[in-house]
Specification:
It is a single chain. By secondary structure, the chain is an alpha/beta fold. Helices cover 40% and strands 17% of the residues. It has eight helices and ten strands. The strands form three sheets. It has a six-stranded mixed sheet. Helix 2 runs antiparallel to helix 3. The two termini are 46 Å apart.
């Protein structure tokens, strides 16, 4: 339908279509030529408008500067967060992220997808079964962590603490709170009192 509309109304493609017809081309052949022209224009437009520069830090520390398609602010925030996470995580830590393959390539850490369940009890149980230490909540188009996992993280401040937040609001990283070490002879703390100190999440420009 787009090619038919373009062959009749587009100021560039309509004359192109008419020239093909005038040259004796069958209408179907002329229409296929318009379809190919539309695809070429779309590909060129994507290449020009959405092929964006990136700056990525490899695991060995050197910086690479490739061009990536659709590499907008949300993906830049994701990579900045993964760069922050890599030196702070232990080699055996497990990360949950919406794009586990990208998180693994960028950090070298074992990475799984977050739970796809609405019930917070089930979601927490799945996170515990791995166990996941860090949860990356990004703002990319493929992100579903905000729908399924973020309510669990925000609703369990005794289990999860926000340790990294991008100023743009496109990324947060949560870390599992360490279990407090209580000696057997020590009296149990008063109920309802959290005695662990919590640092404010790091924010980076």
């Amino acid at each position: 339908m787009a090619a038919v509309t373009a062959s009749r109304h587009n100021p560039v493609l309509a004359p192109f279509y008419e020239r093909l017809i005038a040259a004796g081309k069958p209408p179907k052949v002329a229409l296929v030529a318009v379809i190919l022209a539309v695809q070429v224009v779309a590909i060129v437009r994507i290449y020009v408008d959405y092929r964006l520069p990136a700056e990525l830090r490899a695991r060995d520390g050197h910086v690479v500067r490739p061009f990536l398609f659709f590499y907008g602010p949300t993906y830049r925030a994701l990579d900045a967060g993964l760069d922050w996470l890599r030196p702070r995580a232990r080699p055996d830590d497990v990360v949950a992220a919406s794009m586990p393959q990208w998180a693994y390539l960028r950090t070298g850490l074992k990475t799984v997808m977050p739970p796809f369940v609405i019930d917070p009890v089930d979601a927490q149980a799945l996170l515990d079964s791995v166990p996941v230490r860090f949860v990356v909540v990004d703002g990319t188009d493929v992100n579903f962590t905000r729908k399924y996992t973020l309510p669990v993280l925000e609703g369990s401040p005794d289990r999860w603490m926000l340790v990294y937040s991008d100023p743009s609001g496109n990324l947060e990283i949560y870390e599992r709170s360490p279990e407090p070490a209580v000696p057997d002879s020590a009296p149990s703390p008063a109920r309802g009192v959290d005695r662990r100190s919590r640092a404010a999440p790091e924010r980076h420009p």
